[in-house]
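Hey, sorry to bother you again with one of my protein questions. There's a protein on my desk that I can't quite get my head around. No rush at all, and the record is pasted right below.
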Amino acid sequence: MFADLGLDQILTYGIDEGKLPPGDPPFSKIQPGSGPRHMAFHPKGKFAYVCSEIAATVTACAYDASNGSLKELQTISIVPPDYAGAKGAAEIAVHPNGKFVYASNRDTSNKGNDVITTFAVDPEKGTLTEVEHTQVGKIPRSFAIDPTGRFLFEANQDGASVLVYRIDPKTGKLTSTGDKLDVPLPVCVVFR
């Protein structure tokens, strides 16, 4: 599966002897004009979360692994209700414990409203409840949660740095550790 920003669809493909035949159904629609950018699966495999760049939203979906289909459950904003800056959702991740989802917004208007929003996951329904908006570095292009689930590493494309945040295991809230790695134009954080 992959997100197609221009088509407002999540395209589905099977794997068959090294080939990628279209799935059945071949795609799942996301709200028109929203611009789906990335998606992340819940560790239990029942839910998927789609981050839409243009609308700056997260769409929670029920996932059917038998055919790769998604059913929309909820769409929720990444930015605060009174937000007036530019929208540009970039990254999404589900915490390894499945209790939290994180999504970033890049404020390309340079008003300083670059945030990572924390959402709590309803374990039965898969829906999300906003926990907090954390002000982060300049243009949070990418972030990743370390395998222990204790830290979130955020790449600031225009801030030329990677910042580290501690994740509260009970609330999912982020707190800066003060650690900073200077990196010119970082655009991706990956743990292997």
